[in-house]
Design brief:
The chain is mostly helical and 164 residues long. Helices cover 60% and strands 0% of the residues. It contains ten helices and no strands. It is globular, with a radius of gyration of 18 Å.
Length: 164
């Protein structure tokens, strides 16, 4: 654990999540009956249908802007704390976790009890599934810029060939 903690301290990527996990790393690794879901992981890491990720990393969006509220940067943290589209869901989340939605506070609360873990998973599943559905609609739009179009990997080409 000590070596892993030291390795995480010097990683150039994922600094947001590693900074939040390092103080509670042993508790995180020893958690029981608290699985990571795909969408929870997207929110914790910021790798998902967020304008910031889609523009800077995946290069699938022309800007980092939030499609829901027009904020300059659509990130996991902006989705958690600010975007008005998720206000009702956020109220439910903060009623369980408390008002501080910083990543370190969220992780500490999630490790504290099952109710907090389940509330965060529920928030992430609902928000990310809706963001993914919205992204698919934008990808399939007839006037979509080429950067936004759905990638044609080998598996997708094979799938489309079978449909014909």
């Amino acid at each position: 654990m000590r070596r892993w903690r030291e390795d995480l301290a010097v990683q150039p990527y994922g600094t947001r999540v590693t900074a939040a996990l390092r103080p509670v790393l042993e508790r995180w690794m020893r958690r029981k009956r608290k699985p990571l879901t795909f969408r929870l992981t997207q929110v914790l890491t910021g790798h998902g249908c967020f304008g910031d990720y889609l523009c800077r990393t995946a290069q699938r969006e022309p800007t980092t802007e939030c499609h829901d509220c027009g904020a300059a940067v659509d990130s996991a943290q902006q989705t958690l704390e600010v975007c008005p589209r998720w206000a009702a869901l956020r109220r439910g989340l903060t009623s369980v976790l408390g008002g501080d939605l910083s990543l370190p506070s969220i992780i500490t609360a999630m490790l504290g009890d099952d109710e907090s873990w389940k509330a965060m998973v529920s928030f992430c599943e609902t928000v990310m599934s809706q963001k993914e559905a919205d992204e698919r609609v934008r990808e399939e739009a007839a006037d979509v810029a080429s950067i936004r179009g759905r990638r044609m990997g080998v598996r997708r080409r094979r799938y489309l060939m079978r449909l014909q």
